[in-house]
């Protein structure tokens, strides 16, 4: 899992950091999770059996499913007592 940093990318619609491009080369990597510091947003990038990467997102009142470890992250619980940073 990786938390987006204040100096990182500017919006969730942009490509993930360059690190992800490197991580995708690891054959055993099945999922990559980004947790936003600007909004209640958890992005899960998942490698399908075909080798294609897909993206899902979970926001307020939702859960992010992590198939590779058999669990779900409750977004509201994850962000409980967290101060979000909206500025750059």
Tell me about this structure.
This protein is mainly beta. It has one domain (2-78). Helices cover 11% and strands 33% of the residues. It is built from 2 helices and 6 strands, in the order βαβββββα. The chain has a 4-stranded mixed beta sheet with strand order 1-2-3-4, with no helix packed on it. Strands 5-6 form a two-stranded antiparallel ribbon. The chain is globular and about 35 Å long.
Helix-and-strand structural type: mainly beta
Percentage of β-strand residues? 25-35%
* CA-atom Rg in angstroms: 13 Å
Shape: globular
Largest sheet: 4 strands, mixed
Q: What portion of residues is helical? A: 10-25%
Q: For the largest beta sheet, what order do the strands appear in spatially?
A: 1-2-3-4
List keywords for this structure.
88 residues; mainly beta; four-stranded mixed beta sheet; globular
Task: List the SSEs and their pairings.
Blueprint: E1 2-3, H1 18-23, E2 31-35, E3 41-47, E4 53-59, E5 63-66, E6 71-74, H2 75-78
Parallel strand pairs: 1-2
Antiparallel strand pairs: 2-3, 3-4, 5-6
Brief summary of the model shown:
Strands 1-2-3-4 form a 4-stranded mixed sheet, with no helix packed on it. It has helices spanning 18-23, 75-78; strands spanning 2-3, 31-35, 41-47, 53-59, 63-66, 71-74.
